């Protein structure tokens, strides 16, 4: 019974609030609307505040109030997690008020709004890439900013996310049996992320992929392709002598050498047979 009464009271309060806001919205008094928009923002009732701010933009544009309202409207959308509109408003603020003391903060918040739009690894990472570009631009423009360190950390997070997405693409090629493509994409990973802690891991997977590609090739192509496997193993050993994948990579050496020897012996035998004829 108490829960029912509480629910009825909540519904009554919400209905009353909505009714009051409806009257504010319909009012022809822009000064009254402006005052209520400020009140709603102060009370963190951002949905109401943004509706009034948006409506009042033409009214306050060109007045001393415009900058502050623009700033608050951008943050209101941000607090509502409407990051797309927030990003647009932060950008618009910087474009309109480049000399404002708040411009630096809004530059950062524009980039951060893109970061908040960054989706799961499996999805398109355009917002992630955009975040990196904007955060780097922020650091370049404001190297002494208190936010420069945060911006650099976010760039690292975004780079790690892009690296993980690229790795998953290479892994998918491998799992589907497209071993040549997998080998190439793992090598691209190494080139694109040279400072990654996983470089030796990617290299090992590239070699493993190419080994499987060579293994499945027609016999006329196997010698050349297993020779490449051996060359890549040598490169791996020189670059990563202490890698935890050292033993796994080198386990492919003996079977590669054995196959090459077998093919050479087969060619010699075929040559002898041809000569005898």
UniProtKB/TrEMBL annotation:
The secretion signal range is 1-18
Q: Which UniProt keywords apply?
A: Cell outer membrane, Membrane, Signal
- The residues that cross the membrane are none
Q: Which residues form the Outer membrane lipoprotein BamD-like domain?
A: 31-224
Q: Which Pfam families match?
A: YfiO
UniProt protein name: Outer membrane protein assembly factor BamD
Q: Which organism is it from?
A: Filimonas effusa
């Amino acid at each position: 019974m108490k829960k029912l009464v509480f629910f009825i009271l909540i519904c009554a309060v919400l209905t009353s609030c909505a009714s009051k806001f409806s009257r504010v919205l319909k009012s022809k008094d822009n000064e009254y609307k402006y005052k209520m928009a400020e009140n709603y923002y102060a009370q963190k009732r951002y949905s109401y505040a943004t509706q009034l701010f948006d409506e009042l933009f033409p009214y306050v544009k060109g007045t001393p109030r415009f900058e502050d309202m623009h700033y608050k409207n951008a943050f209101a959308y941000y607090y509502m997690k409407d990051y797309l509109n927030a990003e647009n408003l932060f950008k618009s603020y910087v474009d309109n008020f480049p000399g404002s003391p708040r411009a630096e903060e809004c530059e950062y918040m524009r980039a951060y709004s893109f970061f908040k739009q960054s989706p799961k690894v499996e999805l398109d990472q355009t917002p992630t890439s955009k975040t990196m570009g904007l955060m780097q631009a922020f650091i370049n423009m404001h190297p002494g900013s208190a936010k420069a360190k945060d911006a650099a950390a976010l760039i690292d997070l975004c780079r790690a996310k892009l690296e993980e997405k690229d790795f998953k693409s290479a892994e998918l090629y491998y799992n589907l049996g497209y071993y040549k493509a997998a080998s190439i994409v793992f090598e691209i990973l190494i080139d694109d992320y040279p400072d990654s802690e996983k470089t030796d891991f990617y290299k090992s997977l590239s070699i493993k992929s190419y080994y499987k590609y060579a293994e499945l090739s027609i016999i006329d192509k196997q010698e050349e392709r297993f020779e490449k496997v051996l060359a890549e193993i040598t490169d791996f050993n020189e670059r990563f002598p202490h890698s935890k994948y050292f033993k796994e990579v080198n386990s492919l050496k003996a079977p590669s050498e054995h196959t090459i020897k077998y093919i050479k012996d087969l060619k010699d035998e075929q040559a002898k047979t041809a000569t005898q004829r």
